[in-house]
Task: inverse folding
């Protein structure tokens, strides 16, 4: 009982830090006013002219626009143009094993398990464009909020030459790396493969909160050098604030319940 109580207290502590993180995120979104690309560029240029060279402009900004890129990535699964994608292929299988029961007899059983046979994440710099201009974004280190475009389970073994269809996209498994490199161990029966992929697609509205800096000669929004958040989301500012506020409420309730439960169990164990 005491261990359950201690675990509940530790969990409450974790939720406390999650709550603080969400409160900080909400605070930044509320505090930083939306800029437009032209004003940012002109502000950075004015400071560079005054100082004699770029590299002196740095502040937290909020931008809203659409994603633009001349040489975008092509996502691996859905073959969509994007500036970021994260894909994975997970195999679900049944494993046969033996164990000894209470009577000392060896019993053969099966259990379901999963393993990841392929995964990849790629991103590249892109522009946020609004009605006044465009500003470069370096997404490294950002809290990304992409859209999931693929989440599909394909039953059966993934043999070479099989055709997989996702909506309007179809492709053959011939030549896919995991088909030739991943061989299921003996005693495993493959149930199927789950494909998932999330992307930041071209020409979608995007919300960006980060540090604008011209330290690299070109004005770029990137992860803050000091304190601050770096958010790239396909959600609107209003949606982000609503999600954070709702998350804070849920985490707060969970923290209180876990804390009271843990404290009660620990006290009860001491009394006993």
Result:
């Amino acid at each position: 009982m005491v261990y359950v109580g201690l675990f509940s207290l530790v969990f409450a502590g974790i939720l406390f830090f999650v709550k603080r993180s969400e409160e900080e995120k909400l605070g930044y979104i509320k505090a930083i006013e939306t800029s437009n690309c032209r004003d940012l560029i002109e502000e950075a240029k004015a400071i560079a002219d005054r100082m004699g060279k770029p590299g002196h402009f740095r502040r937290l900004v909020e931008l809203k626009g659409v994603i633009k890129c001349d040489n975008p990535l092509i996502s691996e699964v859905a073959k969509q143009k994007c500036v970021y994608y994260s894909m994975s292929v997970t195999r679900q299988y049944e494993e046969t094993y033996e164990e000894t029961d209470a009577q000392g007899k060896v019993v053969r059983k099966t259990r379901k398990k999963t393993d990841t046979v392929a995964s990849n994440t790629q991103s590249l710099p892109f522009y946020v464009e609004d009605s006044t201009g465009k500003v470069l974004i370096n997404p490294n280190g950002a809290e990304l909020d992409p859209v999931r475009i693929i989440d599909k389970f394909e039953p059966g073994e993934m043999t070479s030459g099989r055709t997989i269809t996702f909506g309007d996209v179809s492709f053959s498994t011939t030549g896919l790396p995991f088909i030739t490199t991943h061989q299921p161990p003996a005693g495993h029966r493959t149930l199927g493969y789950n494909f998932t992929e999330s992307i930041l697609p071209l020409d979608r509205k995007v919300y960006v909160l980060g540090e604008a800096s011209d330290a690299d000669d070109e004005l770029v929004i990137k992860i803050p050098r000091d304190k601050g958040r770096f958010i790239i989301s396909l959600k609107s500012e209003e949606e982000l604030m609503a999600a954070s506020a709702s998350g804070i409420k849920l985490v707060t309730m969970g923290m209180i319940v876990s804390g009271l439960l843990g404290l009660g169990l620990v006290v009860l164990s001491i009394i006993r």
Q: What stands out?
A: Helices lie at 2-31, 37-51, 177-181, 237-271. The chain has one domain: 29-243. The mean pLDDT is 83.
